[in-house]
Amino acid sequence: MVFIFLKAFLVLAFGSSLGSTDTFKYGDRDGNLFLDVSISEAQSDRPEWGLVEPWTSDYIVALQENRYGDAIWARYQIFGVREAIEEDAIGYRLHARDNWKYAMTIYAKSSRNIQSDILDLMFDVDRRSYYRLFRDQARLHKRFQQSEHILPDCDCKETARNAVDSVVELK
Fold first, then answer.
1. CB proximity list for 78: less than 8 A, separation 6 or greater
2. Does the pLDDT of residue 139 top 90, yes or no?
3. Tens digit of pLDDT for each residue in 83-99?
């Protein structure tokens, strides 16, 4: 009975973390959803990851200050949301051609966008040759695969081979 009282007193006095194993370890790819890049990884500035500023610095600061919502937002930005949009646009142009053509007619009528560069990117994708589209798709796919956080078991050579085969089929 005294032991239970003493344990309750210590928990109240020092907080519930006493004896708890639920410490938050960001950068743990197996345990933490969304925050799978550690501070040291973000600071390492690995060129093959292509981390985007100011989001990388924002991610580090948000983690240090336990602002996990901000850290999650920055986490997705540091790998380049624009590149993810470009990869999706290329995929739609190559594999959903009718939907793509319809979307481009709708987007052409858009006005006063704050993110007008996104539509400019899509119109640029619309003007690219199929050869360039497949090449860019392989490049973007490889970039995301190299991050080790996205598509960890990806075979980029196989993806590139499939892209080349698709170009041959189009001819």
1. 37, 42, 51, 52, 55, 56, 59
2. no
3. 888 888 999 999 999 99
**Structure confidence at residue 25 (pLDDT):** 57
CA distance 87 to 78: 16
Quick one: 154 exposed, middle or buried, by C-beta within 10 A (0-12, 13-18, 19+)? Answer: middle
Instruction: Please give the single-letter amino acid code of residue 112.
Output: R
Give the separation between CA 171 and CA 166, rounded to whole angstroms.
9
Q: Where are the domains of the chain?
A: 24-78, 81-170
